[in-house]
Each structure stands twice: as C-alpha cells, then as structure tokens.
Amino acid sequence: MKKIYLFAAMAMVAMQMQAQNATQDTYVGAALATEDLNGTARYVGMGGAMDALGAEISTMGSNPAGIGLFRKGQVSATLGVNIQEEGKSFQDGSKTHVSFDQIGVVFSSRTGKSSYLNFGFNYHKNRNFNHVLYAANALNGSSQSTMTVLKDMNGLFLNKGLACSQLDDLYLGNMVLDENDVLHDYAGVSYDFNRANTGYIGEFDFNISGNIKNRLYLGLTVGVHSVHYKNYSEYYETLNSTEITDVLISDNHKITGHGYNVKAGLIFRPVEESPFRIGVSVATPTFYRLTTENYTTIGTNVDRESAKEDFRFNTPWKFGLSLGHTVGDYLALGAVYEYADYGACDMRTVDGRYYDWYYDTYSESSSSDNVMKRLTEKTLKGVSTVKLGAEFKADKNLALRLGYNYVSPMYQENGVRDQTLQSPGVYYASTTHYINWKDTHRITAGVGFTFDKFRLDLAYQYSMRKGDFYPFMKDYSSAFIDEEGDQVELSNHCDAVSVKDNRHQIQCSLTYSF
Q1: Residue 460: which H helix or E strand, with range?
Q2: Could you say which of 172, 226, 252, 379 has the lowest number of CB atoms within 10 Å?
Q3: DSSP secondary structure letter of residue 199
Q4: Coil, strand, or helix at residue 15?
Q5: What is the dihedral of CA 470, 439, 258, 316, to 10 degrees?
Q6: Backbone angles phi, psi at 405, to 5 degrees
C-alpha cells in the first residue's frame, strides 16, 4: 500500500472532532433496542413461552405477574456457552465465549388463605453483542471516496458541515482533496470488511407481585439496564489508480451507559376450575442515557481522529399477550405474542446542561433528532414475536422441554443508512456500512433434573437469521455539466452481500427452593 499523507488541515479537523458527536443513528439504535432469548435454562428450553404459566424467575422481565404464582422462595443462577457458526476470530471478537447469563431470587409470603405477596430480583443478559462478521465483494468502479466526492458536488459540504461526516473529513484531508482544492475520484475494484462486536446489555429487575384468591395475579417490575458495547472494524478497498492503490479505514467504537423501564402484567384464570390462564403485559420504553466514543484512522502510521459525546435514546413500547395451560402435573403448554414498533425508536440530542450551585444539583435536557427520527420511521418497522413451548414431566424428577420462536424482520427491505442527512448521527459518523437483517428463527430444547430442593436444568438454543450487507449507501449520484456543456450523471452503486448470524447456545442452571 502506498502511504497516504496527512495535510496540515487535519490538525484542525482533529481539534474539531474532540468536541463533536460520534455515531448515533438508526442502525445503532436498532442494535440497542432488540433483545435476545435469554434467562434460566428452563425458560430458554421452553422458548420463553412461560408468561402465562408463571412460577419462573425469568418471567420477571417479560410478564411480571408470573412471579405471583410462586408459593415458596427460590434462587437460581445460570451459565452459558455461545458459539457462532460463520466468521472467524478477529481482534477481540471470538466465535466462542462463556457467558454469565442469569442470577435471581424470589421471596414468597402468604397474606391470606389463598393469597400471596412476593418480591423478586433477577439479573439477566438481555442482549449479547458478541459477533464477528466478514464480507467482501467487487465494487465495479464505486468507492467510499466517490461517496465523499458526490456529497461535495451536491452541495452537502457548504460552510463545512451540512452533512460532512468524520469519515468524509478523513477522505478530504488525505486523498480526495489535494493541496490545490481539486477533487479526485478513485474508482474501487473490490473491498474486504471485517468487524468484531463485543459486549452486552445487562438487565437488573426488581419485582413485586401477588395474587388474589389464586385466580388473579398482578405484577410490577422496574428494570435497570447497563450497556457495554464495543465495535472494531477494518474496511479495505483496492483502487484502480496508480496514485493510491488501496486504502484502509480502521474504526473503534464504544457505547456505555444506563437506562431504565417499567413493566406491568396480569394473569387470570377465566374458569375457576380450570388451570387455563391468560396473560397480558406492557413495558414502557427503556430510557437510555449513553456515551458514545470512537476513533478512526485512514491508512497506516497516522494520528487518530476521535469523538466523544453523551446522547439519549428511547426504545419503543412493548405489548404482550400470552396463554398457558397445564394437564395434570405432567404437561405444561405455553404461547406468547409480543409486539413492538421499532419505527418509534427515538434518538435524542442533549441540548442543555444545568448545574444549580445553590442546591448542588445537575440536570440535562434533550430533544428528538427529528431528521434521524424520520429516517428511523422509514427504515424500521413493527416486529411481531411468537413464542411456543412445552414441558413434559416423565416423572417427578425428570422434565423434557421444547420451544420455538419466530421474530419478524425489523428492517424494511429498502432500508438505507442515509449519509446525506443534516443530523448529528451523520456529521461525525466514522463508518458507512449497514446490514438489513431479515426474520429470526429460534429452536430450543431442554431437560431438568430434580433432587429434593435442588433442580439442575440444561438448555440448547439454535438461532438463525440472514441479512443484506452494504459497505455504504447502495445508490447515490450527482448530475453536472461537463466542459463540453453536456449534462453528465456520476453515480455510486454497491450490491448487497448476503451474511448470516447463526448461533448455538448451551446453558446450565442450578435452582434451589426454600
């Protein structure tokens, strides 16, 4: 690779980066808003279809009323191993890792002849970010540098900043704009992309629940979320040029912070003599306060450009309807339907910080990034999740479980990570790639062994989904008049590359009843 030299102007750019927003856009929000199927091995083994069946610690985070069915105390802890099928280990990313997935406790007390008041706490990993990705394809003359040139030709860099991203700054300062302010367009031959995501979102749930005459069950859960997200990627382009033959973009991105939500639920038996139950649940948006950081380099042996900023993010409301039925003491059947409109995700910008010296208090105000919100509404959509599960007790000490999940696609087929918007999510974006994931299928199985007051549960989960990867906006163009007076259109196009995210998960839970 020929060396790519920095212009003196990049020193000014570096100073500018320190005070500006890093990436906070629709696709980042989608990654933060979704949840995995995780919890105790019993819950996972039944596909999470236990919201109406209850008496399971993990329902604290889905239908809080399920804790109201406990008649005695319980404590459980879960370890897991996650294995990714595709990809290869890259940087800190690995295809296999051990995970501490859950720990929780429930205290149950009788308040009447057939009524109970229960309290519970549960931690579980509701989002696992660990994933390694590789994608490659021909570019047929298109390139990331061409995107920067076209944005400038369309007037997006007027007064330095309408939609000039951090990545655009790097291209302008290093290869696209020369010392005479002349733009150079470099045709791409092919690209290779590697990315390693690591981290998780941990959820701490605090629950109060109970029942009325063993027929109506009510529950309330306050959830606190802790975000730990890291991403490292390398984008390498081979160029059809004798001046610069190739270019490498390396990007480190980190998001940390906390959020909270409130979940409420009820379960009731419509027929007093029947064990058939119906459950209803609702969860408020998770209100996140987050900090995003990144640093990005172009080429080799150059100083990094960095950015750090606080922002707010609100997930959508979530609604659930569930059914549960038992046959004797040997068969339990469950079904759950959940719905959340991810087009309502709200990326927010901190626009005011206040410190009261007299009372020694600090507060902030934020407002919706309306430009990014409109893109989110066009890119993401409502998602339906169906969970089915069954548990069969061969005898009092042995239980067998099966489950299945279907999650409809979150992304519109024509969804685009639009890099031409006047939004903080674009101004200092350090990458341009995106994936439109399709529907998700999960198949689960499990087995449980009971020993007096102890229970040992094992679960297996196989999840599958496919997606379309794009290294940058799939179509963008600019029209201009050439030296001969003819109108010419210069376009930049990239084709989708199919990628997969297939995973195996094995879990082991130990539960003690008291």
Answers
A1: strand 454-470
A2: 226
A3: E
A4: helix
A5: 110
A6: -125, 145
* Mean pLDDT computed over 396-414: 97
Q: Where are the beta strands (DSSP E) in 38-115?
A: 74-84, 96-110
Share the mean pLDDT of the chain: 91
Residue of 495, 489, 458, 455 whose CA lies nearest to 475: 495
| Mean pLDDT, residues 159-176 taken together | 80
Contact 18, 307 (CB under 8 A): yes
d(CA 36, CA 463): 10
Q: Which of 491, 487, 514 shows the shortest CA–CA distance to 109? A: 514
Question: Which H/E stretch holds residue 9?
Answer: helix 9-17
- Polymer length of the chain: 514
At 254-277, the pLDDT tens digits run: 999 999 999 999 999 999 999 999
Within 10 Å of residue 179's Cβ, how many Cβ atoms?
Answer: 8
Distance from C-alpha of 321 to C-alpha of 323, rounded to nearest angstrom: 7
Sequence letter at residue 84 = Q
- ∠ CA 315-342-61, rounded to 5°: 50
Quick one: which H or E segment has residue 321? strand 318-327
The reported pTM is 0.91
**Bridge partners for 300 per DSSP:** none
Query: Are the C-beta atoms of residues 330 and 392 closer than 8 Å to each other?
Result: yes
Higher pLDDT, residue 199 or 176: 199
Query: Counting runs of H as helices and runs of E as strands, what totals does the chain give?
Result: 7, 22
Q: Interior CA angle at 58 toward 54 and 62, to 5°?
A: 75
Closest C-alpha to 24, from 268, 267, 403, 345: 345
Tell me the C-alpha distance between 201 and 197, whole Å: 13
pLDDT confidence of residue 6 = 32
Would you say 290 and 92 are in contact if contact means Cβ atoms under 8 Å apart?
no
Nearest to 36 by CA among 200, 207, 213, 275: 200
% of the chain residues with pLDDT over 90 = 75
- Max CA separation in the chain (angstroms): 93
- What is the spatial distance between Cα 228 and Cα 259, in angstroms, rounded to a whole number? 12
φ, ψ dihedrals at 345, nearest 5°:
-55, 140
**Tens digits of per-residue pLDDT, 300-356?**
656 567 788 899 999 999 999 999 999 999 999 999 999 999 999 999 999 888 888
| Residue 137 · residue 495 · CB < 8 Å | yes
Rounded Cα–Cα distance for residues 280 and 272 (Å): 18
Query: For residue 513, what are the CA distances in angstroms to 46, 57, 74?
Result: 20, 12, 4
Q: Are 143 and 175 in contact (CB under 8 A)?
A: no
The four Cα atoms 81, 449, 69, 64 give a dihedral, to 10 degrees, of 0
User: pLDDT digit string (tens) for 21-66?
Assistant: 346 899 999 999 999 999 999 999 999 999 999 999 999 999 999 9
Backbone angles phi, psi at 257, to 5 degrees: 150, -170
* Cα–Cα distance for residue pair 423/412, rounded to 1 Å: 21
- Token pair 């994933």 is found at 131
HSE-CB for 158 with a 13 A CA cutoff: 5
